[in-house]
Amino acid sequence: MKAMQIQSSGQGPTLHRAEIPQPTPGPTEVLIQVHAAGVTPTELEWYPTTRTKTGTARLNAIPGHEFSGVVAAVGKDVKGLTLGQEVYGMNDWFVDGATADFCLTIPSSVASKPITLTHEETATLPLGALTSWQGLFDHGKLQPGERVLVQGGSGAVGLFAVQLAHRHGSYVIATTSTPNVSLVKSLGADEVVDYKTAHFQDTVRDIDLVFDTVGGETRDLSWPVLKPSGRMITVAADGENSTDPRIKNNYFIVEPNQQQFVEVARLIDGGFLKTFVNAAVPFDQAPVAYAGKVQDKRGYGKVVVTIF
Predict the structure, then answer these.
(1) S-S: 254 plus which of 5, 60, 131, 228, CB 3.0-4.6 Å?
(2) Are the C-beta atoms of residues 267 and 292 closer than 8 Å to each other?
(3) CA distance 107 to 78
(4) What is the C-alpha to C-alpha distance for residues 273 and 192, in angstroms, rounded to an integer?
(5) CB hemisphere CA count around 256 (13 angstroms)
(6) Do 6 and 120 fall into the same domain?
(7) Which of 118, 128, 117, 121 lies closest to 153, judged by CA?
(8) Could you tell me whether strands 12-19 and 66-74 are parallel, antiparallel, or unpaired per DSSP bridges?
(9) Is residue 43 included in any domain, yes or no?
(10) What is the CATH number of the domain that holds 133?
(11) For every one of its 308 residues, what pLDDT tens digit does the chain have, with 9 covering 90 and above?
(12) Structural domain contains residue 262
């Protein structure tokens, strides 16, 4: 099968097309024929991409751990999935991802694909929607009526965070750039700060929860806008290696959750949640997508790679 593998170069990790054996599912695994895979450019340098679970060097990893596709084969102990079933989900960060014809996962990491979306649209959901869900509710303990600040409200995660927080009955403030102000308002933000023309720290106060998807200086400037009892959740990639205990204690990486996948699909098919494809590129353009050099983009949402 065809796959994109990560190789090291003098200019950092790069993607190269390879022909490799198609994987075979073990007794408890599922083989997915991938139709589309989501792109997270920072993933090329994440610890699980470059290391095994035991800490040894990992070579030729395949990126893209969120996917939409069909069940191609199941292990002998797998129940509840049928061949040809359209599903979406994630697989383990330490195994090969979905920028390939096929990938392996486990049944609890997938759910039936939303019937109202294409595979390209569905591939934008797993990381963005579940990161928002887990950040707001599992880690952030967001309550109805609380004030939440979403940093990066038009990004692949922020778009879902705005919608889910609004639907939860919270007061939503979000930051974004000028072209996306109207979009973020339409998704439920009560206030939108255009960071191109204003500084959020000058006007935003008394925040119960900061949901940070940006990191760096933006995250640093967010601490003072919290209430004394306020809390912050950060998913920005630079948090993984931070030595600041405030960041380390509030940083998390999303985990697969089948029930949350089911609920996200229900919200999508019910018209209660929207997703956006920033751009869909063919398989051979995956290196361009991971390098952040796709030219024809919406400017919001997630870039995906079309596999099949």
Answers:
(1) 131
(2) no
(3) 7
(4) 19
(5) 17
(6) yes
(7) 128
(8) unpaired
(9) yes
(10) 3.40.50.720
(11) 999 999 987 778 999 999 999 999 999 999 999 999 999 999 998 999 999 999 999 999 999 999 999 999 999 999 999 999 999 999 999 999 999 999 999 999 999 999 999 999 999 999 999 999 999 999 999 999 999 999 999 999 999 999 999 999 999 999 999 999 999 999 999 999 999 999 999 999 999 999 999 999 999 999 999 999 999 999 998 888 888 999 999 999 999 999 999 999 999 999 999 999 999 999 999 999 999 999 989 999 999 999 98
(12) no
Whether residues 103 and 213 fall in one domain: no
In terms of domains, do 101 and 53 share one? yes
User: Which of 154, 152, 147 has its CA nearest to residue 182?
Assistant: 154
**Assigned token pair, 130:** 């579940």
Nearest to 2 by CA among 238, 286, 207: 286
Q: Are residues 136 and 116 in the same domain?
A: no
3-state secondary structure of 227: strand
Q: Is there a contact between 237 and 48 (Cβ–Cβ < 8 Å)?
A: no
Q: Is residue 259 part of a domain?
A: no
The count of structural domains within the chain is: 2
| Residue 209 domain boundaries | 127-248
- The β-bridge relationship of strands 277-282 and 191-194 is unpaired
Let me know if residue 108 belongs to a domain.
yes
Same domain, 120 and 132: no
